[in-house]
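hey team, just a heads up i'm posting the complex here instead of the shared drive bc the drive is being weird again. everything in one block, sequence lines first with there labels, then the predicted structure for the whole assembly after. its two chains so it's a bit long, scroll down
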Amino acid sequence: MAVSEQNLSGNRPRSHNQAAGFTAIPADARPLAIEARGLVKSFDGTRAVDGVDISVPEGAIYGILGPNGAGKTTTLRMLLGIIDPDEGVRRVFGHDRPHDIGRLIGYLPEERGLYPSMKAIEAIAFMGALRGLSLKEGRARGAELLERHRLGHAAGRQIRQLSKGMAQTVQLLGTLVHRPRLVVLDEPFSGLDAINQGKLELMIRALAEDGVTVIFSTHVIHHAERLCEGVAIIAGGKVPYAGSVEAARDRIPAQVRLETRAREGAWLSALPKEARRNGDFLQFPLPEAGVEPLLRQLIEGEAGILSLSIERAGLHDAFVAIAGEAAARQLEADSAANLGETRA
Amino acid sequence: MTPTDASAAIRPRLSALEAAWVIARRDFLAVLFSRAFLFFLLGPLFPVIVGGLAGSIGGQVQREAVSSEVGLAMSAGDNAALLAASQRLAPQLGGALPVLRQVPEAASDPGFDARAFMEARRGNYAAIVTGSLAAPELVGTEGQLRRWSGPVSLLAGSALSAEPATLPRVSKLAVATSAASERSTRIQTAQLAQMLLFLLTMLLAGMVLSNLVEEKANKIIEILAAAIPMDAVFMGKLFAMLGVSFVGIGVWGLAAWGMWSIGSEAIIAVTGFDLARLPAPAVGWPLFIVLGVVYFAMAYLLLGALFLTIGAMANTVREVQTLSMPVTMMQLMVFFLAAYTIKQPGSGLELAAIAFPLSSPFAMLARAALDATLWTHAAALAWQALAVLALVKGGSLLFRKRVMKSGGAGRARKGWMRRPPRNAAEPAE
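-- predicted structure starts here --
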């Protein structure tokens, strides 16, 4: 596989965590929480995952970004040891078998699962017990977590009596009750309304602030862009890019938006051939020589500059460039479907 | 929250037994405190109560309907002599003799026709004796004639003898047992124990079939599979259902004991079965009961592991129901194999039944009733425990492969066995 692997530290001017004021340890100094090399998984002769390489440093928020069916869940399931890869190796905190360090991992699957007849507090304690927490301690921590998330009143209610959003929160708290060092969330924003998505983002940031490594899959670009320090872009079971969000954006040259008084003139020949008119604006990639020679030519050619802005490419642009138009379109369709589902 | 504080001091994972305990505890309590469990407990009691009532009524009706009275329609003197003979022989022959009763219609009618009387379905006599002591004539249906002609002949002969019968006294010298009688009577205990073991496993092991359906339907299986090994999930579920079964057996046992205490005489009268007269097993009752409990546990775990695996392949309750029929047939076959070998001790077939893990508990329980050797039980239990482990391991592997779609490389290989990743390029740092 031709993987464009980049370490998270590579040309990363400013991570989101740094932007949010978190104390970020330089990525190259951090040990890896997750390391996967050449993971391959086939189902009934079809390759769902085809040679995935991922490196996630400890304490990072890391996104696996791709449309539905790209292989995100299969990759996460392999990393967690739920299924074994057909080929390749995976290591979680240096261990080949993730079950050996189950106590350190928290997992929220895409398809939420709780025993409907269990009380909320018992469900949290049970999930903690699966990770080695005593039931007594699990109940105490569960009560504290429910109170903190304003669900104290629901502690004694059965899961079947809770709303979907409340049940999802209970499951997330169950994922965190044993205080894991690695939290794996499969499509955590799926099915949540905007308010709960915001709460979840805050929760993920708080976890990272406490040194927890968070890895989540999503098909919504802005979640990855807002939260993640690193991403793996996955499409058709392959990972054409894994590295920092900043480096992904840096792959696309900045875009220049130019508005001029004159519509025609010799100055037009100074523009790169990729320049396209979009209404009153001309849009083109920032020339390699920079903006100064261009400005000079525009002034000399009497273009009459009304406005000129240089815009850095977003993760969406990077996704289009890396994964291709088709994958990007599917990603947008998935996002729209998810939005519709949430509204419904 | 300080995420790393707890993880530093605590072991990084649960042992398989601890993980199984977490699953077993949840499942056990969930089943025990469900409303359905109450019905489950009451279920087997309904047929027992209904059967008991029906049996009691039926028995009474039968007792009233089936008469063992033989009517006397001879001369008054002959009747009296026959009655006296019956009284003389009763201490020796007891129930083998008919109850004799004079037919009033015959006494008042010199031309009494016994045949016409019987055909007119008058009275409630099994048969009627006419004629004289020297030439008694018995009138009745074929069956009754076969039954009573001998005793009537004996009574008439005794009545005819001039002297009062003085029967020689038989002195009795009892021996504790004999090989032939011991074996033949203990077979009854062995058969009954096997039957009970079969009924309990058939009644209870079937519950395991649907045990993973809830987890699969609710997607909880993902959380379990991510947290603990699948063997521990299987083992935990098996032991939870075994615990539930013991609760059920305890409740039913108490109910049976209560019923026996209250109405043992009625039960004996209706069923003809007296528990107290059941021959003692070769290993003695206390050890036999202990072995019964242990072999039940083994039979349950063995069949349960198989059923859990089969049931785990099903996606819906409907599929589980479809699977239950072949599973029941399989249980029956296992039971028949073990039951068939009771009368063939030491034969190749008995050894095969002992060696085949699924029939082994049944065959060995029968052996405990017939043979006092103990080491064979220790060996059989070790073998059965191994088989349980193998079935659980195999079942969980199958589940991971077929349902969780896992497999292939498995755990990372070590040393020279390690397989290089495809296009094993060193990751760019």
